[in-house]
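Hi, here's the filled form for the chain we discussed.

Project: internal
Contact: R.S.
Residues: 271
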Amino acid sequence: MKRTLLSISLMALLGGFTGADKNLYPFIVNTSFGKGEQLYYNIYFGIFSVGRAITKIDDKIFSMNSRPCYKVDGFGATSGWISWLDKVDDQWGAYIDTAALVTHVSYRKLKEGPFRKDELVTYDHVNSKAEVKLKNEETGLYDPPKYYKTPEHVRDIVGGFIYLRAIDLFKYNIGDTITVAGFFEDTAYKLKIVYGGTEKIRTKLGKILCHKLIPMVPDNRLFNGKNSVTAWLSADNNQIPIKVQAKMFIGSTGIELEEFRGLRNQLKVIR
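And the returned structure, exactly as it came back:
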């Protein structure tokens, strides 16, 4: 349950180029986000608040694979009484190309009860492969890397949400499908997301008009049906994730926006 909560929250709860680089790194117009943005979320399970999640875009630009990149981090941790049962403190991060919004490097540092995982993934877009390294808990060093084939314009989970924020969702009709090429752990995939129109979502900040997105989740032992996950992105110039909800076999879980700083555009709230 815990890993699903934090994965969603941080799934939740993501210049131009010419010549040979044009197809490899196509320019995507982005007017939705920029450096210094911070989003704060409540994580809930059923009627209970079980933790907090934060996403941050660094206020500096970094270079990865000789490309300028945003550094985007998501932090999720349990809070209150549930921490006494099983403490969780996770970090998901990625270096995202400022022009093409593809992932160049992603990393996960997971602390969930006794479980630990420190993963570093480097994406080679020229040769369409990902190098995955896991840190050995005993030595503190990375074990020999493993390599996997990846699709064109591949993104990790963080990069996937960032990419969705830059798409003009008003161009889509109800039932239209958006496809995102991704990679997670050792598997490449193409996730299909159905556009569900707009809805007004009630939050602690007020009512917010949102785009409704429904990823087509493959059959698994956690989620209750292929339409079990729904995400709502603000239907304004920010397109920030307002709420993500998942129907699991053991109950309903998700995240909801509570606070924000450094938005590129004013958030439209219906009082």
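Let me know if anything looks off before we file it.
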